[in-house]
Design goal:
Number of strands: 0
Shape: globular
Low-confidence stretches: 1-14, 106-129
Distance between the termini: 47 Å
Structural class: mainly alpha
CATH class of the largest domain: Mainly Alpha
Order of helices and strands: HHHHHHHH
Number of domains: 2
CATH architecture of the largest domain: Orthogonal Bundle
Helix content: 55-70%
Strand content: under 5%
Radius of gyration: 18 Å
CATH superfamily of the largest domain: RNA polymerase sigma factor, region 2, helix turn helix motif
Largest sheet: none
CATH topology of the largest domain: Rna Polymerase Sigma Factor, Chain: A
Amino acid sequence: MRHSEYLVSSRWTEESPNSVDAPLLERCRSGDRAALEELVERVQGRVYNFAMRASGSRTAAQDITQRVLIKMVREVSAFRAEASFTSWLYRIVVNEWIDERRRLKRLVYLPVEGLARWRSAGLGPEQAHGRGEREEAVMAAVARLEPNLRSVVLLRYLEDLSYEEVALALGCSMGTVASRLSRAHAKLKDWLGAYRDEV
């Protein structure tokens, strides 16, 4: 089987990695090609979205996603459920993002485009404009955080991982997660000024 066949599609699904069940993983571990394709289909959207938010570049996000999916397919046979699949997957994602940053040797900021998907439906024009400005300010501030703080914020709040899952994904203790979140909160409140009570 050629792992390079598991290419990123141009259609990103929004299915959560948590929806990956034990029977599917067992089939993947045994080398079932259809199961591997299903696994890629289920997780690629979440992997891409995280990579996009972290890197701020579509090209970088696609490259990261491609490498993550290939690595996931290669290594899923070794996954033994000692941690959740979500934590295992995001650890690969974060490591690939860090590697990408090293390759680029520069900080890439998050764009404000695409924030509309986080806006609540049904708001009037004035409310939507105000909410959009606030979300753009928050995401721009998150983009300024150093990588170890940004990754914790993205995993905890945008990917909705628990403290334990974030710790497993980053290979650190829950105390470190709490400390990094605290430092991130302090910086975000300082930077956001008018929006400080909402962070």
